């Protein structure tokens, strides 16, 4: 059945037994919704320097959105931010491929369980479900670092302007 | 598969389905389409499709201008559609039927008329607007906008646990301060028929206008605007076998005379100078710009089609199907109907949840079997909040729906349960 390409065993496993679910301490929290279907997620990130120490989340939604958040937690926790960004961009590329992208070895190594979502990209209505937690993570990360930068600036010396004679 | 029962009161769906070529379509290669998303939009019979193409092939011109043959024919067809709609809803006068692009535009039009109106209709600070918790977003957001812009207070009727309006506080809700009460005749998410009479009576006592959203009523039952005793009635064409892009606002003549226009432009004027303009009488006062002419003609054909079958017969058919569907659905373990649990005082739109399985997943697995339902909050998110659920799966039937399609839904839901077990 064609449906099996979307509901891969690994996706249903993550849906039934989500990894890292529940809200824990974080540096930033965001709440994202998918207005067309009512999927919601609250997500927190905790960083230590550039290392992701935790991504915790709570939400309600379909199997695809919930499994995707679980896979995200598996993949990103412990990673450096630059590596995590690479993973996120690769996942986005896969999800926007409309089923036309066959993941190669490099992509499989990078995305691990997340390559199972390749089948979802054939269903335009469901792509947003798969991306919900990833967009939330991106937003939370921007906030965590945005605030950190703002705090550094507030504490440090005001930037000096060089005047040329 | 269960053998479908013989239900009494059904229409001859074998004959009716011949008018709807799309219903013969196969989806996902091998499955017969089971179209149960009629509350979102209905399918269109060939009679309507032929009216649309016939108009464009033979009569296309702009209306109410030009003296050539085509202009006169197009005008006659467009205005003829207005006559048909007026008769369909038992309007006292054809001039009370305003064509819009959909029910949302109709409701926004009323809200804006009342925002710009003079006394005694003007909605402003220290006045109140009353709606209900089961409205479609199109009958919530225009009133929120009006409330925010004017300072008027927005209030609403709550819901009972079985999906009906909670009328206990009607006299506290609708008061001397109330300028307008706007509510749906039939819920688009739960199928509930609302008891309009007592609300209309209370509104009349305090001098408030009554607006009725009949989008989910007009396709399914005889609609009589005089019997409703409302001031405005809004509905859309595409849910009643008509094309998209055409809606209706019916309003009482003296109100339409008194209330100001909202959109300005061609068609709606009498004379224009650089300093000011005077306006055409209703309905043209509210139809600025070139109207959706072909779509109005298509709606006229839809009205003819429904009238020939008979609105009472359609309602009887849907009631029989609803009774059967409610029974079959309630036999499915873990299925919870959101809304009235029986077929009494409700239409053939049934929302439900299935255990912990998210409606998106329910809808996807049903679709794979050819069964088209709607999933989500159905533009009535407050209803989902009220019942503590993120979304529902909604099956909605129409005049061409059959008991076999109810069975396909029920069998499909069993398959969904097994898939996610």
UniProtKB/TrEMBL annotation, chain A:
Pfam family, one: NifU_N
Record-annotated NIF system FeS cluster assembly NifU N-terminal domain positions: 6-129
InterPro entries linked: NIF_FeS_clus_asmbl_NifU_N
Name of the protein in question: SUF system NifU family Fe-S cluster assembly protein
Organism listed in the record: Streptomyces iconiensis
Lineage: Bacteria, Bacillati, Actinomycetota, Actinomycetes, Kitasatosporales
From TrEMBL, chain B:
Entries under CDD domains matching the protein: SufS_like (cd06453)
EC class of the enzyme, as a word: transferase
Reactions that this protein is recorded to catalyse: (sulfur carrier)-H + L-cysteine = (sulfur carrier)-SH + L-alanine
GO MF, one annotated term: cysteine desulfurase activity
Domain Aminotransferase class V: 34-409
Record's signal peptide: none
Domain of life: Bacteria
InterPro entries in the cross-refs: Aminotrans_V_dom (IPR000192), Cys_dSase_SufS (IPR010970), PyrdxlP-dep_Trfase (IPR015424), PyrdxlP-dep_Trfase_major (IPR015421), PyrdxlP-dep_Trfase_small (IPR015422)
Family: Belongs to the class-V pyridoxal-phosphate-dependent aminotransferase family. Csd subfamily.
Name the UniProt record assigns to this protein: cysteine desulfurase
């Amino acid at each position: 059945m064609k449906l099996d390409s979307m509901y891969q065993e690994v996706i249903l496993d993550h849906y039934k037994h989500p990894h890292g679910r529940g809200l824990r301490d974080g540096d930033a929290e965001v709440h994202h919704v998918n207005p067309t279907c009512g999927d919601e997620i609250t997500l927190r990130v905790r960083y230590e320097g550039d290392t992701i120490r935790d991504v915790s989340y709570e939400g309600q939604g379909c199997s695809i959105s919930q499994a995707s958040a679980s896979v995200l937690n598996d993949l990103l926790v412990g990673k450096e931010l630059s590596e995590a960004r690479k993973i996120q961009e690769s996942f986005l590329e896969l999800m926007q491929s409309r089923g036309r992208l066959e993941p190669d070895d490099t992509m499989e190594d990078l995305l691990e369980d997340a390559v199972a979502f390749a089948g979802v990209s054939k269903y335009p209505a469901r792509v947003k479900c798969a991306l919900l937690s990833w967009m939330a993570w991106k937003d939370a990360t921007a906030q965590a670092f945005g605030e950190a930068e703002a705090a550094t600036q507030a504490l440090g010396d005001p930037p000096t302007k060089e005047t040329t004679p | 598969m269960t053998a479908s029962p013989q239900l009494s009161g059904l229409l001859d769906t074998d004959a009716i389905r011949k008018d709807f070529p799309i219903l013969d379509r196969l989806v996902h290669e091998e499955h017969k389409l089971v179209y149960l998303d009629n509350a979102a939009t209905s399918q269109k019979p060939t009679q309507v499709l032929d009216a649309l193409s016939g108009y464009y092939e033979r009569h296309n011109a702009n209306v109410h201008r030009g003296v050539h043959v085509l202009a006169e024919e197009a005008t006659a067809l467009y205005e003829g559609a207005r006559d048909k709609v007026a008769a369909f809803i038992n309007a006292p006068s054809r001039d009370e039927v305003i064509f819009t692009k959909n029910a949302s535009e109709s409701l926004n039009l009323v809200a804006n008329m009342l925002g710009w109106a003079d006394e005694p209709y003007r909605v402003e600070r220290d006045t109140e607007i009353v709606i209900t918790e089961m409205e479609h977003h199109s009958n919530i957001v225009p009133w929120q906008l009006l409330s925010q812009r004017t300072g008027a207070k927005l209030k609403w009727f709550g819901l009972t646990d079985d999906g009906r309006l909670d009328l206990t506080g009607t006299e506290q809700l609708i008061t001397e301060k109330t300028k307008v009460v706007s509510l749906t005749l039939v819920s688009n998410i739960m199928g509930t028929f609302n008891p309009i009479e007592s609300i209309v009576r209370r509104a009349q006592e305090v001098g408030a206008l009554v607006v009725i959203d009949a989008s989910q009523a007009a396709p399914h039952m005889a609609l009589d605007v005089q019997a409703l005793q409302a001031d405005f009635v809004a509905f859309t064409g595409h849910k009643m076998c008509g094309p998209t892009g055409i809606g209706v606002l019916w309003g009482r003549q003296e109100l339409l005379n008194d209330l100001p226009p909202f959109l300005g432009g061609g068609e709606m004027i009498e004379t224009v100078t650089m300093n000011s303009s005077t306006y055409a009488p209703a309905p043209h006062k509210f139809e600025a710009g070139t109207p959706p002419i072909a779509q109005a003609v298509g709606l006229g054909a839809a009205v003819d089609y429904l009238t020939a079958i008979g609105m009472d017969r359609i309602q009887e058919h849907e009631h029989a199907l609803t009774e059967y569907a409610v029974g079959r659905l309630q036999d499915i373990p873990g299925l919870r109907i959101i809304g009235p649990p029986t077929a009494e005082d409700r239409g053939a739109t049934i929302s439900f949840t299935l255990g912990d399985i998210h409606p998106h997943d329910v809808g996807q697995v049903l679709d794979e079997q050819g069964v088209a339902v709607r999933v989500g909050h159905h533009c009535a998110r407050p209803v989902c909040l009220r019942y503590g659920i993120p979304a529902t799966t909604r099956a909605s039937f129409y005049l061409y729906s059959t008991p076999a399609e109810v069975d396909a839904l029920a069998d499909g839901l069993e398959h969904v349960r097994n898939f996610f077990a």
